[in-house]
Amino acid sequence: MMKSPFKQPFFCLALLLIGSSAGCAAIKSNDNATEQPVALTSAPPSPLPSPKLNDLDYVAQIVQRVGPAVVRIDSSRTVGQSGGDSLFEQFFGDQAPSRQRVQKGTGSGFITTSDGRILTNAHVVQGADNVSVVLKDGRQFKGTVMGTDPTTDLAVVKIDANGLPTVKLGNSDNLLPGQAAIAIGNPLGLSNTVTDGIISATGRSAADVGVSAAERVDFIQTDAAINPGNSGGPLINSAGEVIGINSAIIQGAQGIGFAIPINTAQRVAEQLVTKGKAEHPYLGIQMAELTPEIRDQINQSDAGLKITQDKGVVIIAVQRNAPAARAGLRPGDLIAGINGTAVQTSRQVQQQVEATTLGNTLEITVNRNGQTQTVKVKPEPLPARENRE
């Protein structure tokens, strides 16, 4: 994986630590939900009129419509730590009492169903002992975490309420750089803060952003101001539709924020609601997009590979005991298509794999030493990062 030119990103969760200082640690959620799953989204609200280019108040109109469905999420957990007094510990040994500290965090979210289903980031609520949801009108509810997915940094929270305002979900597959983008959230604890800008880019990978979490996400990049506490809040288009979930920023940068596309969020959230977890298909390959420079680097390496093409997607490594290895895929194979669909980029390959259903077989067409052949691979659930060899 190529090294990202960006500095280390920050997930946008505002943390307050009582009793000690600590980083933004991941906290595991309690997803013991007992209710029967229902549809992720309720009946869509009445559409907004299309904004006029000369209407300077269109952002305010959108905020009035969407703002009531944006919530503040306060989470907390209690963690133990050593007493910190070496003489005290030497005297009491293992009997020395431990201190406890409370980690508190504030993030954002938005309501997708009138009966209280909320989308947010996993790092906002993961491992929390207590989750509290505060509506714009001041009402406060206890939140139950229905499920979290660290792989995409998404979570679903439920509150016990009815008749709630909801957002309208848009389509994140057809976004173009330069389109308007509006963010609503609770940056640095400042509730219901609105910022606006444009979509700066689409399809930013975790490697581009420089994060190890959310590895199966093609981020939306925006210059709408995003700060700690914005995590989980909506990114909205000019029609008042949610197109993304604000998630990460880069330390020291201005005008560079990232959001998870809403289409990805919907797909994962549906699994969290119905299964309590999300499963991601896994092949176990490392890919690169060929350029003449990368081709020469591969050919001059000790891998013993000889590649003549300078375009396409090449497999540069196959994980041991992974589905791809058992199916016979090899380093140096050039991926030409999946299930009859031609692919030219690593992103297209990942999208095809992610879209498949576990248990189904993928037919991967590869060019190997100038010969075209088809390899059948049955993806398996993505293992934990530490279990990938």
The coarse overall form would be elongated
Helix amount: 10-25%
Q: In angstroms, what separates the terminal alpha carbons?
A: 15 Å
Helical run tally: 8
Estimated share of beta-strand residues:
25-35%
- Spans of at least 5 consecutive residues whose pLDDT stays below 50 are 1-8, 16-39
What is the mean pLDDT?
A: 80
Biggest beta-sheet profile:
8 strands, antiparallel
Main structural class:
alpha+beta
Alpha-carbon Rg, integer: 23 Å
The count of strands amounts to 24
Secondary-structure map with pairings?
Blueprint (H helix, E strand, L loop, with lengths): L8 E3 L2 E5 L39 H9 L3 E12 L4 H7 L6 E15 L3 E4 L1 H4 L4 E5 L5 E3 L1 E6 L4 E5 L9 E2 L10 E6 L7 E12 L1 H4 L9 E4 L11 E3 L4 E10 L6 E5 H14 L5 E2 L2 E5 L2 H8 L13 E6 L4 H5 L6 E5 L2 E2 L3 H10 L6 E7 L2 E7 L2 E2 L8
Parallel strand pairs: 10-15
Antiparallel strand pairs: 1-15, 2-4, 3-4, 3-6, 4-5, 5-9, 6-7, 8-9, 11-12, 11-14, 12-13, 13-16, 14-15, 15-16, 17-24, 18-19, 19-20, 20-21, 20-22, 22-23
Characterize the structure shown.
With 389 residues, the chain is an alpha+beta fold. It is built from 8 helices and 24 strands. It has helices at 58-66, 86-92, 122-125, 206-209, 262-275, 292-299, 323-327, 346-355; strands spanning 9-11, 14-18, 70-81, 99-113, 117-120, 130-134, 140-142, 144-149, 154-158, 168-169, 180-185, 193-204, 219-222, 234-236, 241-250, 257-261, 281-282, 285-289, 313-318, 334-338, 341-342, 362-368, 371-377, 380-381. The two termini are 15 Å apart. The relative contact order is 0.14.
